[in-house]
Amino acid sequence: MTFAAGVAALVCALCVDLTVFYARASVETPGVPVRLSVLWGFALLRFWALAAATRLTLGRVRRLLLRVITAHSLLPAVFETGSTALYPGEEAGGRCGRLADARCWLLFVAASLSAALFWEVTIPDSDEDAAAAAREQKKKARVQFLRVVKLYRPDYPLLGGGLVFLTLAVVCEMSIPFYTGQIIDILGSQYQRNQFRSALLFMGLYSLGSSLSLSLSPSSSLSAGCRGGILTCAIGSFTCRMKLQLFGALTKQEIGFFEVTKPGDITNRLSNDTVRMGESVCLNVNVLLRTFIRTVGMITLMMSLSWKLTLLILLETPVTGLVQNIYDTHDQRLQLAMQDSMAEASEAVREVLSNVNVVRSFNAEQHEAGRYGRSLVKTQDLKTRRGCFRAVSLLVQRLTGLCTQVLMLYYGRQFIQSGQMTVGSLLSFMLYQSDVGTNIRTLVYCVGATLKSVGAAERVFEYMDRRPVVSTDGTLRPDDLSGHVRFNRLTFAYPSNPDRTVLQDLSLELKPGRMTALVGPSGGGKTTCVSLLERFYEPQAGEILLDNEPLKSYDHGFLHRKVAMVGQDPVLFSGSIRDNIAYGLTDCSMEEVQEAARLAHAHDFIQQMGRGYDTEVGEGGGQLSKSEKQRIAIARALVRRPQIIILDEITSSLDTESESEVQQALSGLPDRTLLVIAHKLSTIEKADQIVVISGGVVEDRGSHQDLMEKKGSYYKLVEKLFAE
Ligand SMILES: Nc1ncnc2c1ncn2[C@@H]1O[C@H](COP(=O)(O)OP(=O)(O)OP(=O)(O)O)[C@@H](O)[C@H]1O
């Protein structure tokens, strides 16, 4: 917009506006209804003329300008309608006449500009993209909200019961002020015993109904009222279902997901967001319904007492709603920031507690304390800001409420004097009024909060709906699996570090009944090969074939029974030795467990333990030595009768005697495909095929004899091992 166009638009608008303003004053209007109709007609004409003039001169009307035009055009009509309602006795044209005064015009211009400025400062217009994003976000929130409501389906009977109590409570509660006013009127006028008694009786009954269904303070209503009890049950059962569903979805995710996602984030969603999602949606809907019924009921009763005073009171609503809206938006933003900062602090604590030995050995106590301290200070800062903001918004709301009360008392006295109201009805009105403001504020808050409360649900659904990158949809379960494995030109980078290729065009063959040893420098990619065979990750290029079928076409459970791995640092779960060996199997007999333990050379030491196979291993197998843990892990792999056995440096924690016994036992298993990662020459030598992997590529392959004669990278490696 050029400066000249702006000036032209302003001059044009001024001319049009003043013309319509003075034209209205010149129209003679007999009687109130005609006068008000003409007034509103001119208001609309003024709005249309101003909008058209601005559009013609500027090309388009910005939203801010449209707000100014709307306020400016409608203000005189609103003012005169209000004045006529409040001072019905005044002479027609008395006030309207004054409006055609230039001072009035200036007053309306100032008022509409200030209102638009206030709006602009408190709720600035977002740009088109941001507005579209906000609309999209609202739509998404609505969909998620409905999804939560649908997920509540098994609890609908409970929620229905809660709704009955809720309605009962609200209706009873609303009737009390009405009867209070009636009693005052009966006491103030000629005392009539029967009227007084029946009013007292109704008031007592309604109070009883109200307190049975709804406790008086909102904070205790959950535990005290019947409605609260029912809702608590519904929320509890919903949360339980959600936690189970989310846990199920999480355990299906690929390993890469857990590497790139912070454990704190996962546990936060599982333990807090599931609770918050059930609570916030259910409680917000409950409060929304309760407040809505109450507000509508109260406004109806207030209208029946005095519609003029009710209109006056309702003038407070837009201001209250606006202040509440601004407060809620900021408060929720701060609350989210606080949640993130709290999660950061608990993540820091969790990391230190689970790796306290590393922290100690690097003398990093101060550093960690500093990190934790910074997270706490950040949380505290956010808390303080939230508190200040709350105080300011409360102050504004209280002041608005106070002004409304003063106005209500002022006009109330006038209405009593003119006989339009009784003292009792003013008292009833005042009792309702004190509540109606709070209710409208709650209503505004709840409409926003109900949709925003699905923020927690959004986080829960994100994980619930996540399809694992490594699919588990395979169905193949052949009866006879030979265990022939081919790594076909694999290229792979870890999801947590996608720019670094760890395996490059790697091909490998593992034959049934043969032992293959993967050797090579540390970081060469041996464990990565094993992880891909276990389908922990999906390669970016190439594929692994098992009996000439892609690995991903095999049934998930079947594959993990047929391919068993024992890692460098086996993990045991708290429970008995038997539970650990039969881990994940539902149909495993004691004989099978013992047979596997014998093969793994674990039976003897298990027997020597106080409770044999029922001995508890402690958390993470903490009550066992590393070698014992290793042998139980081998038994856990063997009990599944796998066709492919992977041993990733298991011998590093076994003594020489146990090692050779385990090796012997494994080599005694007929037709099994054995893949071993080893650094000990004694283990490597026994392999039928040795594959040297370095830098993600196969550098050498063949038998020990062949490779030694070739004097390639394997030869150098063996020399190095000897030197060590
Ligand atoms: N989870 C992971 N995320 C990102 N990079 C990884 C991950 N695991 C391993 N790497 C990287 O991949 C490369 C190959 O690692 P890998 O564990 O396969 O080597 P390795 O030959 O088994 O070594 P070692 O003999 O020391 O066990 C290394 O550079 C390692 O840093």
UniProtKB/TrEMBL annotation:
It is a multi-pass membrane protein. It holds the Pfam family ABC_membrane. Its main location: membrane. One of its GO terms (cellular component) is membrane. It is found in: Endomembrane system. Keywords: ATP-binding, Membrane, Nucleotide-binding, Peptide transport, Protein transport, Translocase, Transmembrane, Transmembrane helix, Transport. InterPro entries: AAA+_ATPase, ABC1_TM_dom, ABC1_TM_sf, ABC_transporter-like_ATP-bd, P-loop_NTPase, Type_1_exporter. Residues 161-452 form the ABC transmembrane type-1 domain. The chain crosses the membrane at residues 39-58, 102-119, 156-179, 199-217. Signal peptide: none annotated. Residues 485-720 form the ABC transporter domain. One of its GO terms (molecular function) is ABC-type oligopeptide transporter activity. Belongs to the ABC transporter superfamily. ABCB family. MHC peptide exporter (TC 3.A.1.209) subfamily. This is Transporter associated with antigen processing, subunit type a. It comes from Cynoglossus semilaevis. The lineage of its organism: Eukaryota, Metazoa, Chordata, Craniata, Vertebrata.
